[in-house]
Amino acid sequence: MQETSHTETPYTALGFYHKISQLRADTWNALKRDLGQLVRLQDDSRAKNLVKAIDIKLTRLEIIEDYHAFPSKEDFRHLWSLFDRGEYGLLEKVVKRLVRALISESYRRRHVDLSETDADAEDLETLDALAQLRRGHPASNSSAQPYFELLIVDNLSAPEEEVVREAFHNMRRPEDRFVYDVVTVRSFEDALIAVLVNPNIQACLIRYEFPYKSKYNLSALRSYLEGLSEKSLENQTEAERSILLSTMIHELRPEIDQFLVTSGDVEATASRDIRHFNRIFYRETDYIEQHHTILRAIDNRYRTPFFDALREYSKKPTGVFHAMPISRGKSITRSHWAGQMIDFYGINIFLAETSATSGGLDSLLQPYGPIKKAQEYAARAFGARQSFFVTNGTSTANKIVVQALIKPRDIVLIDRDCHKSHHYGMVLAGAHVSYLDSYPLDDYSMYGAVPLKEIKKTLLGYKRSGQLHKVKLLLLTNCTFDGVVYNVRRVMEECLAIKPDLVFLWDEAWFAFAGFNPTYRPRTAMHAARTLRDRYRSEAYREEYAAWKAEFDALDPDDDATWLDRPLLPDPDAVRIRAYATHSTHKTLTSLRQGSMIHVWDQDYRQKVEAPFHEAYMTHTSTSPNYQIIASLDVGRMQAEMEGFELVHAQVEAALSLREQLYSHPLLQKYFRVLVNKDMVPLEYRQSGVETFYDPVTGWNKMEEAWANDEFVVDPSRITIAIGATGIDGDTFKNEYLMNKYGIQINKTSRNTVLFMTNIGTTRGSIAYLLDVLIKLAKEFEYRWEESSRPERKIIENRVHSLTKELPPLPDFSRFHSAFRPDADGNTPEGDIRCAYFLSYDDENTEYLRFDNGELQAQMRTGRDVVSASFVIPYPPGFPVLVPGQVVSEEILYFLQALDVTEIHGYRPELGLLVFTEEALRNPAAG
C-alpha cells in the first residue's frame, strides 16, 4: 500500500486535540460497528456506503495511531491489506481484537500480534478484558511492570523504523523495572503533535536530521508554532534544530526525559545550551546503553522516597515503647471490640503508624532523609525551587507563608474575597491590610478577580504617598473557586515595574493540577516566576526595556494614565523574582484530605526568608504529623509526574464533553445555562474577544487564544450553571435535588448558580450520569409547570423572577474606621485588622445591633460610623462581607438583608451584628 493512498484528505479534526482520546476510542468502536454491519449486509445496497465510511474511519485512525506504539505502523498495513482485499469478515475479527486490547490495555503487559487470528489469541484478549473489569483499572495491578512509550524523532524509512523498533525490543529483560514500546516520527511538527496526543510518551530520543513539516495538516500546532516556519529553520544546523525541538517539547511536557543522538561533533554539541537533554549519545553508542539510561531516567521520576521508606518500616519487627498505642496496630489487634477498624482499613495503615519523635522515619519539621528527598522531587515536579509538605491543609499553608514573609505593620495588598485563612493570617501577622476589590458578577452573586489596573492604581497610590517601601506582599487567588484565572506573568511583570522587590503569594488551592497541562501551565505562579527570571536575564529583554524606558520617560510621570493605561516593564537590574504558591494537593491531585504543599520561587529566599519560614513552619506544623498524608503527597507527586498530563487531559476532555451537551440539548438549555467566558469575564478583560471556547461548527478551537492573551480566563473544567430558570435557589438545589435525590455531591453554590467540578478521577460514566440526572430534573420541572394551576404558576414565576432579576449588587469593601487606620491623614486605605480583632475580646468594647428591625440603620442615620467587631461570612458566597474594623455601609446591609441563606458566620440573628461601641473607637489603643 502506498503511504498516502488513504490519507489524501487531512483529518483536520485532529486539531481538536483536547478530545483526542475520546475521539480515538469512539472512532475505533464506530469502525467495529460498521464492520459488523458490513459483514451482515455484503449484498445489501447499503454495503457501498459502509465501505466508504470504513475507509474514512481507517484513514482518520491511521493519522491518530501514527503517534502511538499500538497499533503499530505494521499493524495498520495489515488492516489496510485486509480492507483492500475485501476480507471484511477477517478485518472485523482483527479490529475486535484490537479494540479489546485497547480497552483492557493488554498491549501494556504483553505483545499483541494482530496477524494471529486463532481462537487462543481472541481468548487472551477476552481474559484481559475480564481481568481489567475485575480490577477496576489495569493500573491497580501493582505487580505489573509500568509501561511507557519512547518517542524517536528521525527521518527514517519504513524498514529503518522496524529495525530501530526491533532493536529496542531486543533490549528488554524480565528483570527491568519498566517495559516500553517505541513510537517513531519523521518531522519537527510530528514530534510536537506526538507529545500532545500521546500521554504514554515518557521519553524522547532525538536522532540525526529531520525535516520541519509534517505530511498532515495539524491545526492543533498553530498556537505552538507561531513565528516558526520551514523557511526559518532552513539554515539551522542539526544541533540547533534539535535543541529548539527539545525546548518546545519541554514547554509542552516538561516531565518527558529527553536524549540527543548526534552524528556530528558530540563534544561541541555538549557545550551548547542543552539543558533539557538528560544526556547526549554519539550515533555509534550501542542500544543497550541507551536502553539502560532511559530506564534510569524513568526510575528517577517513579521513585517515592518517603512512601518506599514507610512501606519498609511497616515490615520491620519493632518493640513499641512510645506514646502511641495504635502504632503497629497493637491496641487494635489485641482488642475484643475495635477489630472492625482492621476489617475496614486493613492492617497496613496501622503497621505504618509510628510516633514522629521515635526515630526510624524522617521528621517533617527537620527533614534530612526520605521526606527531604520527597520534597525535592515535588519541587522538580511543580517547577519550584523549594517545596514543603503541609499535613493540615492549605489554610495552614497560607498562614505559614504569610507569617514567614510579613512583620507587624507591613502593608499587604489582598483580594477581599479570598479564602478566610488569609484574613486570619493577616490578624496573626499583624499586617496592615489594603483590600482590593474584584470585579462583581451581580447577575450570579459571585465575584470575578482583581483587575490589574486596580492593583497598579493601589501601588501607585502608595508610591505617591511615599509609603511604597512599606508594601511587602500582593496576595491573590488563582484560580478562584468559580474558575477565574489570572494572567499571572502579566500581573507580576507590571507590578514589579512599580515595586521591583514585591513578593507574590498566589493561592492556587484549586489549581495544583494546572502545572501538568501545556495550556494551563503558563498561568501558574511557578512557571511565571521561572519564565520572568529567564526573560530578565536576556540581552533581548535589556534592549526591549531600554526602548520602553525611553518612550516612558518622555511622558508625564505624575499623570496616572502614564502608569495605568499602558503595559509596564521592570528594570532588569533592580527586579527580584519572589513568588510563593500554596496548593491544596488533595483537592485536584491524589492525596489524602489535608495534604497540601507550599512551593517557592524566591531569589531572596536563602538570604531573607529561610530562617523565618522555618520558624513559621514550626509554629503551625504539628509535632505529630500524619505519615499517611505525607506518603500520599509523595505518591501524588509521582503520579503527577508520570501520568499527570494524561489525567489532566482526560479531566478537561470530560468537562468539554459535559459542556458540549449542555450547550446543545434543548431541554437542558431551558432550565440550565452554562456560564461561558463572556458571562464570567467582562469584555474589557478579554483582549482576544473570545466569548466562548466552543462553537458548534468549529468545535473547541479558541481556548489557546484566550489563555495566551486575556487578562482573565475561565477554567473549562469548572462548570458553573445558572439555575434561576428553575425557580430553585442554589443551596436548595444542591441539597434537596442533587444530593438527597441522586447522591451527587458539589462544593459551591451561589443564590442562582451551582458549580460542577471535574477532576482527574472524573470518568465518562460520571459525566453520563450527571447528564442523565439533569435531564430527569429538567423533565420534572417541565411536568411541574404543565401540571400547575394558575396560582401555582404565579408562584413559580415569582421565584424565577427573584432569582434572575432581583439580585442584590455585590458590595465593595467600604473602608476601615479611622481608629484602625495607620495613615492618620487617610491618604492610603490600609487598616490594622489585628488591633480591631483583639479589641473585640473585651466585652465592654462591643455591643450587638440588629438590622432586621431597623435598629442599626437608625444608628447610622444619626451619623454614627457603625464598625464591625468580627468577621461576617455568609455561605454562600463564603468570603467576609465584613472584617474587624470595617465600617458598615448601606450597600453591605442591603446585601445581607437580601441574602436567603441560613449560614452566616459571625452573625447571630437573635442578637444582630457584633459592633464596636463608640467609646471603644475613641481610644482603641487602650483596649
TrEMBL record:
Orn/Lys/Arg decarboxylases family 1 pyridoxal-P attachment site domain segment(s): 304-529, 580-764
Molecular function GO terms recorded: arginine decarboxylase activity; transaminase activity
Names of the cofactor(s): pyridoxal 5'-phosphate
Keywords of this entry: Aminotransferase, Lyase, Transferase
The EC number(s) this enzyme carries: 4.1.1.19
Enzyme class, UniProt record, top EC level: lyase
PANTHER family: AMINO ACID AMINOTRANSFERASE (PTHR42832), BLR3474 PROTEIN (PTHR42832:SF4)
Name the UniProt record assigns to this protein: Arginine decarboxylase
